[in-house]
Structure formats: C-alpha cells, structure tokens
Amino acid sequence: MLDNLTGRLSTIMKTLRGEARLTESNISDAMREVRMALLEADVALPVVKTFIAQVKERAMGQEVIGSLSPGQAVIGVVHQELTRLMGEANVDLNFASQPPAIVLMAGLQGAGKTTTVGKLAKYVREQHKKKVLVVSCDVYRPAAIEQLRLLAEQVGVEWFPSSDQDEPVAIARAALEHARRHLFDVLLVDTAGRLAIDEAMMQEIKALHAALNPIETLFVVDAMQGQDAVNTARAFSEALPLTGVVLTKLDGDARGGAALSVRQITGKPIKFVGVAEKVGGLEPFHPERMASRVLGMGDVLSLIEEAQKSVDQEEAKKMMAKVKSGKGFDLEDFKMQIVQMRKMGGISGLMDKLPAQLTGQLGGQLPAGADEKAINRIEGIINSMTRQERSKPELIKASRKRRIAAGAGVSVQEVNRLLNQFETTQKMMKQFSKGGIGKLMRGMKG
Ligand code: GDP
C-alpha cells in the first residue's frame, strides 16, 4: 500500500528536523512530497488537492508538542486527515428495514461482485447470525449463476435458482417473494456488469433498484483499477443512490490510491474491503487502520497519538486551576482522568509510563493488570453516583454504597475499592500540584 508515501514521509521527517513550529514554508516542502506520493499512488487529482489544502490548514501554526519532532507532527496531521478522507469510522451494513433486508450489488464486470456476494453471505451469516438468501440476476456472463450457486454452497447459505433465460427484474421479484415467504433476514442480489459502462447496463440496474427498493446498494470496485475506479465510481453514484462501497482486491494492489479516492468521489462509506480471493477474504473497512497502513509507520503513529493524548493541555490546565483554587479534586475529575487513561492504553499502560518513583509510591494500589473492562466498571460505578456524591465522596456511606453497587451491577467491595483508588489519586494530585501537572505529564511520556 502506497509504499512510496512511506518513503517520502521519511524524507519529510528529515527535512523538518529541528524546526520548533510548523510554518507555511516548512509545511509546503513537506506537502510537495505528500502530493507526489499520492499522485503516484493513483489518487485522483481533485482529491489530492483538497487533501493537501486540508492538511496545510490543520498543520499551520501548530506547536510541535512534547517530545515530537516537527516531521512527526506533520505525519500526525496527515494521518488524521487520511482517516477523515476515508470516512472516520467503520460503517457496518444497515439491516434496519422490514425483513428481508435487501442488499443490491453494483459494479463493472470483473470487479468482484459475485465473489463479494459469497463473502458477504458468509459474513452476515456468521457475524450477524442472519438467515441469508442469495440470487444472481446476471443473465449475461456465462456461468455467473453457477458461480454463485457454488459459493452459496461453500458458505452454507441458500441460493435462489435463476436461469439466463429469465429477465433480471423478474428474477429479483421472484427471489424477494421467496425470501419473504420463507422468512429470510437478508437477500443479497448479484447483478450483471459489463466491461465498460454502458447505458443499457445502467438502465437495467436502475430497474432492479426500483423493483427491489434495497436498503443497501453497494458499489463494488476493483482497487487495482486506479484512476479508472474514480470514473466508474462517479458514473455509478450518479445513476444509483449508493449506500456504500466494497473495495476489492486490495491484496493485489501495490498503490491503493483508489481507497483514498472513492470515498471522496461517491461520498459514501467504504464498508468492506476484499483482501483475498477466498470466501474469508473480506474485512470491515476501518479508515483509521487503513490510514496507518498507508503510512506504514506504526511506531511513529503510536508515539504521536500518545503525545497528543497525554498532553491534553486544556484538560490539564483546568485540573490544575481546580487543585490550586483549593476546590479539590472530586470523583467527576477522577472519572475524567480514567477516560484519559483509557485513551493512553489503560491503567497498566499508564503504569508503564509513570516514573518508577511514583509507581513505587502508589504501592500497587492501582491494579497492575487493569484493563479496558476494569476501566469501564469504574466509569459505571461513578455514573451511578449522584452529582452530590461525586463532588463530596465522603457522603458515600454504607446505604449509598449499596445503591451505587446495585446501579452499576457490581459488588459493594468494588465500590470500596474505587473509593480507595480515588483517595490515593487525590493525594497524588495534591502532591503534584506542588511540582505541577506539566511535570507529571512529562514524566508519563518519558
Ligand atoms: P464479478 O464479475 O464482478 O462478479 O467478479 P467476480 O466475483 O467473478 O471476480 C472476478 C475475479 O476477481 C475472480 O477471479 C475473483 O476470484 C477475483 N476477486 C474478487 N475479489 C477479490 C479479492 O478481494 N482479492 C483477490 N485477490 N481476488 C478477488
């Protein structure tokens, strides 16, 4: 994936070494590299232009925080923007319709539609525990119907028989009728593609869409198509109200620019990616992970994330003011800290980063192996408290403890443990208010 981008970003890291602030000129140099890399990776020019402009805007004037180098800071911005470009978060299939939820596949011949129907059938059956029916409306490509029958057999879902003597719309209607009568949850509809976009094909898929009124209309596109993928995506998104994209053959794609373009062009989320020919070779698409993969700089990226999260300066300042104003540190603040801790990889992760001197002082009061679950429980307990209890924890006596424990679905001992942890933290906060939170935060990153 975009090997070149990784290479070029290393150059950026070198170019920007030692600069304390990101400025117009040093960012411009860096952006030239990013721009070249994206174009070489076959990302569409308008997409590249918008992307570069956004990165520039975001990066400009940014302080280079903590231990990061300016180059790393720029890569951080590039990573965030790449994630945004590809849609922020994963979007799963939507089944919120009267059953059966109909999923219509659209795309060029060879894009991987039939294979994807098989993969999706397996995914929906296994992950969503749904009863799936598949049908092929591809009456043109020889053996397309048979190919789907074999796939259905392989993944253990029902296949609705069709023949190349039938009308596509008639097949779809019959399959829908069958799905309704036999209480299928999901109907996956494969359609014909042609080698190039033509009017007849578009009319046919529009007619299928009108007849089925699917809740999902997925555009299947071959990642190896490069620039052409963009044109195809545009044509399909103009013809059909697409709801999502499946990007296939990502395993074979050396450049991967399509992943960056199709989202922008269609305005629809990439829901899945095909990563192998076999039926298991389908993955939900995670923009953030893809951005990391594209940048191929796992280490640098986690370093950046840590630095950005731990130096959540606004929060730290507020907390500091609170401690200084003598108002004290209450359970509400404690909860906020816990949330921060989660961002930093849990309590155990945090313990690793705290200076040894401090962890020694805590004397193992914080559970060493505490994980995500423990953090969730702590949050749950605090959520079960009233506002008054949060600001005056000393109010929490036996009967309140029982109520809180019941509300959070934990034992009273757990509530006690949390209150002890809170007290320890409170002491720690007081201590550090002398040395300053900045010192504490710097310690964490060390
Ligand atoms: P359709 O014409 O759109 O139905 O395309 P097919 O489903 O027949 O796929 C065309 C070719 O691409 C077949 O040889 C598939 O095995 C292959 N294919 C589809 N998806 C993937 C994928 O994610 N990775 C790889 N390596 N091959 C794929």
TrEMBL record:
Residues 1-86 form the Signal recognition particle SRP54 helical bundle domain. SUPFAM superfamilies: P-loop containing nucleoside triphosphate hydrolases, Signal peptide-binding domain. GTP binds at residues 107-114, 190-194, 248-251. One of its GO terms (biological process) is SRP-dependent cotranslational protein targeting to membrane. Belongs to the GTP-binding SRP family. SRP54 subfamily. Part of the signal recognition particle protein translocation system, which is composed of SRP and FtsY. SRP is a ribonucleoprotein composed of Ffh and a 4.5S RNA molecule. This is Signal recognition particle protein.
